[in-house]
Amino acid sequence: MSTRITTLDNGLRIVTDMMAHVETVALGVWVAAGARHEPAPRNGLAHLLEHMAFKGTKRRTARGIAEEIENVGGSLNAYTGRELTAYHATVLRDDVPLAVDLVADILLESTFVEEELQRERGVILQEIGQAMDTPDDIIFDRFQAVAFPEQPLGRPVLGTEATVNAIARADLFDWMQHRYVAERMVLSAAGAIEHERFVELAAKAFGRLPRSGGEGAPTAPVYAGGDRRDTDDLEQAHIVIGGEAFGYLDPDHHALAVFSTLFGGGMSSRLFQRIREDRGLVYSIYSFNASYRDGGLFGIYAGTAGESLPELVPIICEEFRKVAEDVDEAEVVRARAQLKAGTLMALESSHSRCEQAARQLLIHDRLIPYAETVARIEAVDETAVRRVAQRLLASTPGVCALGPVTKLESYDSIAARLRA
Question: Is 50 a catalytic site residue?
Fold first, then answer.
């Protein structure tokens, strides 16, 4: 087996995945801290911290961080989600010590200089403004808010102008002290990596991390659903229709993935064929599912001309109901093949393998063999797909629309179509 795990005395888990015949290593730290862990008045804190980690440490300036990684032809980046924040690098095998040192430095020794904080706050406010100018992005944040109103999972990862402006330097240090602790973090590497040497580097760089920050699990989400419509002078109407789904630990997690692929995951899917190919009503239509540890969302996104909404929405609802009643075996076989191919293609990417190992340890507390994942996908049959569709249809619908949406029928009418 190519994967190995070692746990340091402070509880930090280190996982490596040795890949033969490659010369690079993807590595990083994944932290179980994201937007859903933030207090409401400091929404956007996790994302702001991720930005600030690159703005200087006790040993390096922001420019020094960028130059050191690029001097060896490597890359260093990060991202923030609703449940996780990640700091990752890709380097040649001989430069792993530098990459580990850089990642540890930005996580343990960042100074959060006030001048840099003010500057980066302005950058993030521009990022928020850019998102507001991108309707096919912002519609998903609004759908999230409809699903989980006044809850951490319903708030945007970027935060708002008001909350970002309210975050102080002390908030960043407090967040790191309580959230960036060994038991909530995984250091992962994949590629041309030697496990024992990597553990030595990790122990030296991260051994002084505190074990725990005393913060408990986030409050379980309470799905609400409902309706939000924002009329705007846009070329297209953007609409999401969906409902409550289920999390990573649910027995139907893989069946949900097969269902979503079959229903709206590609050019052969029901939504694409019936609505774009047969009717030409949209340029873009697809289904998606967002899973969390303790819940999830399912939705159908479509971008269309405002005058097409009266024809489009009934067809979406009809297709949704149909898939809960009748599924063809060939559809299921094709969807399973797409998911299996995606799973196995990820084996060729050191970054994908690195990220997947970290996520599995944080979510499942174990590594899941690829053979087990493939077997679970293979086990999904027509009955499982129909069961998933029925579970999704049983939830209160969520409807979110943006743009020229005055011709969109009422929420009650849409809900009735999904129940018919």
Answer: yes
